[in-house]
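Q: Convert this sequence to structure tokens.
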Amino acid sequence: MCSVCGTSENLWICLICGNVGCGRYKGGHAIEHWKETEHCYSLELETQKIVEEYNDLLTSQLDKQRNYYESLLSEVKEENEKEISAATSKAVSMMKLQKLQAKLDKCLEEKSFLDDINANLVKNQEMWKERVRKVQEREQAALKLKDEKIEKLEAELRDLIAHIECQNAVAAAPGSISSDIQGGTILPGPSAPSSSSSPVRPTKDRKRN
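A:
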């Protein structure tokens, strides 16, 4: 019977000290003995079942710890998933950035190539302008020299015409005058050539090719 209340039902005996107490369905004195002495091993007299109260407590604590660590693992898993997602997004962003950088480098390379071509074209344009200028200067010099030659030939032609006209005038004069003229020296003065005998002098302001 229970050492406290004297009941003979639902009795438990402590395997450490031999104390007999009733279970939880009666006065619960066996549990009080366990709390007071912390004797963990007891035997149910009716069923001969050994109950380890400490094991129940440990199991309860382990369940709590399991739930706690499962919660931690769940949080770690969720955090890892977030980090993986962020890393994946970052990797995708890096790939996009690398592609954009490659396109930018290609555009800069093409721009540099076009700038070089443009610089060469400008340089060639200046060179050809200089060549055209020199050709024009040579043409102008040649035209000037040609005009000077024409003026010289025109002057010689005028002198020749005047000399011929003088000879014709002497030949057509009467005999005595002709002999007197032939015995002297005639200095022909500048005479304006007639429109019929003088060649037409080309104008300088004609179109030059």
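The chain has a mean pLDDT of 78.
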